[in-house]
């Protein structure tokens, strides 16, 4: 299985490799434009970013599938606070499927800085004194005391968006 991933962030590449390990994939990282803001602010914008990444990565290669992963923030009816969300999209050039990873509430101080226009990656680095957290454990790792991490969290989005291509239930 040959996969084109629309990002050069090693965490996203690893999430795809590890989740689809049993298919022994060849994974190509493609530097594409997500077509949405650096910090998406809704489910819709986050999903659109994932879709654009998937389609553009496939278009740039000879892969079997294009995979897009996008992080964003959003508020949800009935759930207090601003949350970090992550969505995946997978396309074979014909259909496109979407699925999400986990959702976690961001600390109020982080939410305030995002509301003022900052991006989550740099805000988390500033808060924790780290450099490139978004390319390692991620906010998902830091905010759960390591119970999960960004690779595993994104892996869920990969699994949920790939499922429809790997089972017969959606045909
Ligand atoms: O190179 P790309 O693929 O763009 O990788 P990225 O880390 O920027 O990932 P996204 O664009 O999908 O994420 C949008 C923003 O949210 C940040 N972000 C998302 N998840 C994060 C996490 O777990 N930890 C820290 N920052 C995160 C990220 O750094 C960006 O500022
Ligand atoms: Mg980005």
UniProtKB/TrEMBL annotation:
Hydrolase as UniProt keyword: yes
Cofactor(s) this protein cannot do without: Mg(2+); Mn(2+)
EC class: hydrolase
Gene Ontology MF: a single term: metal ion binding
Domain named Non-canonical purine NTP phosphatase/PRRC1: residues: 6-166
UniProtKB keywords: Hydrolase, Magnesium, Manganese, Metal-binding, Nucleotide metabolism, Nucleotide-binding
Cofactor remark from the record: Binds 1 divalent metal cation per subunit; can use either Mg(2+) or Mn(2+).
Residues involved in Mg(2+) binding: 33, 62
Annotated Gene3D superfamilies: 3.90.950.10
UniProt xrefs under Pfam families: NTPase_I-T
The protein's Enzyme Commission number: 3.6.1.73
Single GO BP term: nucleotide metabolic process
Catalysed reactions, as listed in the record: XTP + H2O = XDP + phosphate + H(+); ITP + H2O = IDP + phosphate + H(+)
Residues given in the record as substrate binding sites: 7-12, 62-63
Function: Phosphatase that hydrolyzes non-canonical purine nucleotides such as XTP and ITP to their respective diphosphate derivatives. Probably excludes non-canonical purines from DNA/RNA precursor pool, thus preventing their incorporation into DNA/RNA and avoiding chromosomal lesions.
NCBIfam families tied to this protein: inosine/xanthosine triphosphatase
Sequence similarity: Belongs to the YjjX NTPase family.
Subunit structure of this chain's protein: Homodimer.
Name of the molecule in the record: Probable inosine/xanthosine triphosphatase
Organism: Haloarchaeobius amylolyticus
Lineage, uppermost ranks: Archaea, Methanobacteriati, Methanobacteriota, Stenosarchaea group, Halobacteria
